[in-house]
């Protein structure tokens, strides 16, 4: 496995930021995610980003919401439907990466989510995001068998 360059890491960070905005739009506008995925990059000016990663996040996260929510439910203090849409989208991105992207180290997935929360979330939401994703990461690490080797849902 080759290590990612600083530039490609930055492109993934920007892809996560754009995915957060698209997932927020999906939740609020209740539009078809495929419509958003096609139109979204053309609607906004983004810094250089990893377009393939953006498309993966925007298309795959909605397809595996039940799995992501199932990972969140044991470690959160309320139903996911009661979490602010921004924080919920950040958690989905983090849990998706922890669960389905073994190429993303858990610490990176958690730290990227914290940075998204600091930039877009409520004042102290980054602490909540950190606590929840740390618990999910610990839980996944403890389930080394079939569960931890989850295959992609699509």
Automatic annotation (TrEMBL):
* Residues of the NusB/RsmB/TIM44 domain: 14-137
Under which name does UniProt file this protein? Answer: Transcription antitermination protein NusB
The protein's GO terms of the molecular function aspect are: RNA binding
Please provide one cellular component term from the Gene Ontology annotations of this protein: cytosol
Q: Can you supply a Gene Ontology BP term from the record?
A: DNA-templated transcription termination
Q: What does this protein do?
A: Involved in transcription antitermination. Required for transcription of ribosomal RNA (rRNA) genes. Binds specifically to the boxA antiterminator sequence of the ribosomal RNA (rrn) operons.
InterPro entries this protein is in? NusB-like_sf, NusB_fam, NusB_RsmB_TIM44
Identify its protein family.
Answer: Belongs to the NusB family.
Record-linked Gene3D superfamilies: NusB-like
Which terms are listed as keywords in the entry?
RNA-binding, Transcription, Transcription antitermination, Transcription regulation
- Keyword Heme in the entry? The reply is no
| Domain of life assignment | Bacteria
